[in-house]
Amino acid sequence: MENSINPTVADILDRFEREYLPSLAPRTARDYKRHIQHLKAEFGIRIAADLKPKDFGPYMDVKKGKIQRNRALAVLSCAFSEAVGRWYWIDRNVLKDVKRNPSQPRSRYVTDAEYESCKASAPLRVRLAMELALLTGQRQGDIIAMKWDQVQDIGIVVEQSKTGKKLAIEITPALEAILDKCWTIKGGGSSGSEYVLPTRTGKPYTSEGFRACWQRTINRWQRLSGGKRFTFHDLRAKSASDSETIDAAYQRLGHTSMSMTRRAYDRGVRKVKPLR
Questions:
Q1: Strand (E) positions, the chain?
Q2: What does DSSP assign to residue 158?
Q3: CA 186, CA 224: separation in Å to the nearest integer?
């Protein structure tokens, strides 16, 4: 379709998936593919250059799934930007003039009591993952992919899969104690596994596999406690919120901008000093 002068939305998304998605982190690429399939079903046969902002009105005007529609349009906008500025298939990105549904950052803060209660009822490996998430502030994907060769004298060296940000997380006594537990679990480092938190066979968890473990854990906790559910990713926000300073949270989470830390991850009540 490189020589087409009137590419359809499907033509653009096909090339976008082929050329752009391999540069993304695996989890992000999977999310993009899911949105791409949905976008093709909705707009695939349309000629991209003929689309106008009003053509997206009915798509965005839904009672449920408003944020998912925002994310799908963000993927399509990214694809259209490639078609404009890199492939020269179309002259403008019409998505820049489409208003997104209002959204608010997630505000769920996991209290200490909720965290300790859930951890107490969790299986060993989920419990260790929770502790690693809280202490290091890293994403689920980076925790289950963590290897022992990343544990070095300067700290746990992490190159974040989503952003490529490189960190060396200081190994405090509390973090060292968790690593010691990880070393001795069945199939762990003492058994020859290269992964810090592997399955019982020493292999790494898949995203889907660990997610299933977490869902069983949080479902059981909610059933036993009657508490409000939270996601594993909310523990990354707790790591930020419980930090002594917002700068410490920003550094530990490895965000590319302080605004991301402030807006989406600092969810607790932060004490401030009066002017005088």
A1: 151-152, 155-159, 166-169
A2: E
A3: 27
In the predicted structure, residue 3 carries a pLDDT above the cut 80: no
Kindly give the residue spans of alpha helices, DSSP state H, lying in 20-123.
Answer: 26-43, 57-60, 66-85, 112-121
pLDDT at 214 over 90: yes
**Please, which residues bridge with residue 159 across strands?**
166
What pTM was computed for the model? 0.80
pLDDT score, position 4: 54
Crossing angle of helices 234-241 and 124-136, rounded to 10°: 40
CB 83 within 8 A of CB 124: no
**142: its two tokens:** 């980076």
Domain that holds residue 140: 112-265
Structure tokens at 154: 């300067």
From residue 242, alpha-carbon distances to 188, 228, 236, 248 in Å are: 30, 19, 10, 10
Domain co-membership, 58 together with 153: no
- Bridge partners (DSSP) listed for residue 195: 147
Q: Using DSSP, state whether 43 is helix, strand or coil.
A: helix
Q: Cα dihedral sign for 160, 165, 168, 174?
A: negative
Judgement on whether residues 90 and 116 belong to the same structural domain of the protein: no
